[in-house]
Design brief:
Helix content: over 70%
Order of helices and strands: HHHHHHHHHHHHHHHHHH
CATH architecture: Up-down Bundle
CATH superfamily: Amino acid/polyamine transporter I
Largest sheet: none
CATH topology: Amino acid/polyamine transporter I
Distance between the termini: 24 Å
Shape: globular
Number of domains: 1
CATH class: Mainly Alpha
Number of helices: 18
Structural class: mainly alpha
């Protein structure tokens, strides 16, 4: 029987984690954040909190990854920690909302920024988005190594684009940061603004956990998956804080808040309209590459679910020649295409996508306490630095964010809960079918 090939190196896993984190968010969300909290000090504060959250999550998940280095990542940890229902609901939500919605949104985004050069109408954008999904599907069906090389290349290219913005900001810009004070402790309204801003921050930081999904195809999963996530979270935190300072060297905060294409507008202030075209190209590369990484990693969740008998049986099949979970990849891409055709953008999805995702992040982090008690002698090549405070910090911020989203964005949050609820009858149907 064909098996998943173990071909991904530590560098591949690191590029997957970094590439999954750096997508369209850093080009789109700073404007949203500046509107919610129009103070330079608070803007840097929330990006630092987001980075601490990503790093604490990576440190926590790294232990889980070193202990259970199989394909499926979070799905496996939830299933082992709480039972198959929890794992299924995660995979269900990931397929129905989080990952396929992300692929659809990223595809529309890269089509939109390609339209900067070719002036597509709405139908043209959808055609390009669907074509892009088709191309990404073929790349990942043909082999995990090809997908890994693809993610390496596009991650490196997007980093070049981001570092270009940083260099232009610091070398040619002049600082617009005039208010360094942080007064969040005496203004309740700013706490509300921070809660709203964190939606964009956590969306932008999301993705470090993608390295765990391909652990079953890593050359040395126990050692390389933890290192990849920690490197990715640390590096991306530094990049995000620095590029936000660079934005504020190029534009005042009120202009950042008013911009719909921040990076292009910021660069255009010093190098003209040519800069707008270069940044549009960088955003296209970034979003296309991130969509490719999402297409590569998440099907391993559906593959693991189907292998356990709680998803469509076909999804557990491995291609006899390319040794990839090709049905899972095709299944995911088909649903993403449907979302592109009928939803079109990620703007209406982002809040409940992140809301749903972070419910499971909190639950997954909590499994570290369960496994420390239930499996004290399990092999762990890595143990969480700062345990138990590191996972407790991660869980506390995640719970605070979920509760605040429920208050500030009730429609999106309730929609996410409904989508989760729909998975319950489906799970019990499959469970009864295999019993």
């Amino acid at each position: 029987m064909p098996q998943l090939k173990k071909e991904l190196s530590r560098f591949d896993l690191t590029m997957i984690a970094i590439g999954s984190m750096i997508g369209s968010g850093i080009f789109l969300t700073p404007s949203i954040i500046a509107r919610a909290i129009p103070l330079p000090s608070l803007i840097i504060f929330v990006w630092l909190i987001g980075g601490m959250q990503a790093l604490s999550g990576a440190l926590t998940f790294a232990e889980l990854g070193s202990m259970m280095p199989g394909a499926g990542g979070v799905y496996v940890y939830l299933s082992e920690g709480y039972g198959k229902l929890a794992g299924f609901l995660y995979g269900w939500a990931y397929f129905l909302v989080v990952n396929t919605g992300g692929i659809a949104a990223l595809s529309v985004a890269f089509a939109t920024y390609l339209g900067y050069f070719f002036h597509f109408n709405i139908i043209g954008i959808k055609i390009v988005a669907v074509t892009g999904i088709f191309v990404l599907t073929l790349i990942n069906v043909f082999g995990v190594k090809i997908g890994g090389i693809f993610s390496d290349l596009f991650t490196l290219l997007k980093l070049v684009g981001i570092f270009g913005v940083i260099l232009i900001g610091f070398l040619l810009g002049s600082s617009h940061i005039t208010n360094y004070s942080i007064s969040i402790f005496n203004k309740g309204t700013e706490w509300s603004g921070i809660a709203i801003a964190m939606v964009g921050v956590l969306w932008s930081y999301g993705g470090w956990q993608h390295a765990t999904y391909t652990a079953g195809e890593a050359k040395n999963a126990r050692r390389d998956v933890p290192v990849a996530m920690i490197i990715a979270a640390s590096l991306v935190t530094a990049i995000y804080v620095i590029i936000n300072i660079a934005y504020m060297y190029l534009l005042p905060v009120n202009s950042i808040a008013a911009s719909s294409s921040l990076a292009a507008d910021a660069v255009q202030t010093v190098i003209g309209t040519t800069g707008g075209g270069l940044i549009a190209l960088a955003i296209f590369i970034s979003t296309f590459g991130t969509a490719g990484i999402y297409t590569l990693t998440a099907p391993r969740i559906y593959f693991a679910m189907a292998s356990n008998g709680i998803f469509f049986k076909q999804v557990s099949k491995i291609h006899p020649r390319y040794n990839t979970p090709y049905y899972a990849i095709i299944f995911q891409s088909t649903w993403a295409v449907i979302l592109v055709l009928f939803w079109g953008t990620f703007e209406n999805l982002i809040s409940y996508v992140v809301f749903t995702d972070w419910i499971f992040f909190a639950l997954t982090a909590a499994t570290i306490f369960i496994f420390r008690k239930k499996l004290p002698d399990a092999k762990r090549e890595y143990k969480t630095l700062g345990y138990p405070y590191t996972p407790l910090f991660f869980i506390a911020v995640a719970v605070w964010f979920v509760l605040n989203t429920l208050i500030e964005k009730p429609e999106q949050a309730i929609a996410g809960i409904i989508m989760l609820g729909l998975g319950l009858p489906v799970y019990f149907y499959w469970k009864r079918k295999i019993s």
